[in-house]
Design goal:
By secondary structure, the protein is of the alpha/beta class. It has a single domain, classed as Cobalamin-binding domain (Rossmann fold). 41% of the residues lie in helices and 18% in strands. The chain contains 5 helices and 5 strands, in the order E-H-E-H-E-H-E-H-E-H. It has a 5-stranded parallel sheet with strand order 2-1-3-4-5, with helices on both faces. Helix 1 links the parallel strand 1 and strand 2. Helix 2 packs across helix 3. InterPro entries: Acid_CoA_mut_C, Cobalamin-bd, Cobalamin-bd_sf.
Length: 133
């Protein structure tokens, strides 16, 4: 790993969702896989998430949501990134997201959506294989 930069991941809980057990499990697994993880905590606005991603110089934003507001909050985050001219951050999402909503979220720029039951190893592999070097 000499010369390679550690992958930096921001785990964020957008909106009014007050449940973060899954986000914390993912954060720990990513850390155990050798990534540097920053967790924003609960109830973050899209603006706060994008600002934290910029300040922390992250490679990946992992959004976790259970509230059902993914079709509003995820696209807003992508919009804010585009407004700032940021196109080198891999954005992924997870949580309770209906399968019929996934194509729309991907059209908005979310690279992948991980629903409940996804093996953690699949998330780790996706990040390692898709992070922009």
């Amino acid at each position: 790993m000499q010369g390679e930069r550690t992958i930096r991941v921001l785990i964020a809980k957008p909106g009014l969702d007050g449940h973060d057990r899954g986000a914390k499990v993912i954060a720990r697994a990513l850390r155990d896989a050798g990534m540097e993880v920053i967790y924003t905590g609960l109830r973050q606005t899209p603006e706060q998430i994008v600002e934290a991603a910029i300040q922390e110089d992250v490679d990946v934003i992992g959004l976790s949501i259970l509230s059902g507001a993914h079709n509003v909050l995820f696209p807003r985050i992508m919009e804010l990134l585009r407004e700032r001219g940021i196109d080198d951050i891999l954005v992924i999402g997870g949580g309770v997201i209906p399968h019929e909503d996934i194509p729309f979220l991907k059209e908005c720029g979310i690279a992948e959506i991980f629903t409940p039951g996804t093996p953690i190893s699949q998330i780790i592999d996706f990040i390692k294989n898709n992070v922009k070097k």
